[in-house]
């Protein structure tokens, strides 16, 4: 097999995920390159790389990390062999992956065709149907008139959900509970989609009440060898955005777990998927499961899968991109039947948001910072240290706190103890809110669905 050399790797991202990738590179003896916007001149990720370059001068803070040609040029100018896109920003941008391929820079991710298929949720749905994976009853492709949506609702009954085809991050979704709400919801969904994602394509699905969000971690190499690393339960969500994740799920019947994991592998094999990806499902209260989307990249919550399997997903990504097979040295993932998980892991997303003010992002200088730690604890942080200035320009994730225990109860106790150990002054955080979540009876009993947070007012006090 032809291996491609990776001596130098650039991360086209910022914050904790950039640092996460640099750490993987350091262990693989790969030289690291950061890019940073003007606003990120003092950001920690800049200093964690061997080299760092300013990108997107004169552009808006977010646009700096979306500057495809600027980033490709920096990579060429500095002899970068590979680019890891992290999550968000350009990670699902097919043009960026294609430009890297054209310039002979390794894009650490799938082929750009996969990003085209999975970047558009309605195309992804079609791929799932073709692979024989159960999907939520929905429109065939995108819808182009309110009448089409009405006809769908008449056939399938309310509630329904209108979703932006290019949506992500829990945005671009509208639940419609009755005919009276339909027209306005449709128009709003379209204009929001246009505004947020630059394109107003929307599609419709039946809205599943109180489901669980279960997702399967996949790794695939260029030989078509594809394995799953079990599932994560990401049902603890606020407004369709994940807040706390658990691996493995505690609520799945063994047969359903197996069927979901097998379906995920089947779908990814059917498109000849390459590298790391996640297949997301909703599971209804009676154990029926439905595909919702594929995230063709590393995810924020990959940490907990690493903790329960011992498999380094980011290193695997880089080594797969180099050309190694999954079971070859140095990736060394066992055959599927021999991949095991051990104990339970939980991740909390600690953000600089104010729960008492509708989770508005808070900004300012961190005057004091002390984190938890100890056995079975993992911290993945960006600008989380005393003196760091939290700006309003980027997302509000401050540090990912993950804990592992032999049982779920032990992992949860460790999580609570760690949350309590944190001392952060100068910016508001969601820590007290997270404490309320992880000590809540429903969470401890493994009974939460995606409506848990939004329907549990006592979490907010
Ligand atoms: P995003 O890409 O924005 O994360 P997803 O399609 O993954 O969007 O959905 C995010 C969340 O929205 C899901 O975990 C679930 O809580 C909710 N959701 C999406 N589609 C449906 C549906 N058809 N029925 C019920 N909830 C849904």
Automatic annotation (TrEMBL):
UniProt keyword annotation of Transport present: no
Domain of life where this protein originates: Bacteria
Residues annotated as the enzyme's active site: 297
Amino acids binding ATP: 121, 205, 240
Segments crossing the lipid bilayer: none
Span of domain Biotin carboxylation: 5-458
A GO cellular component entry from the record: cytoplasm
Molecular function per GO: ATP binding; metal ion binding; pyruvate carboxylase activity
Keywords, comma-separated and alphabetical: ATP-binding, Biotin, Ligase, Metal-binding, Nucleotide-binding, Pyruvate
Residue intervals of the ATP-grasp domain: 125-322
GO biological-process terms attached to the record: gluconeogenesis
Stated role: Catalyzes a 2-step reaction, involving the ATP-dependent carboxylation of the covalently attached biotin in the first step and the transfer of the carboxyl group to pyruvate in the second.
Name recorded for this polypeptide: Pyruvate carboxylase
Organism: Terrilactibacillus tamarindi
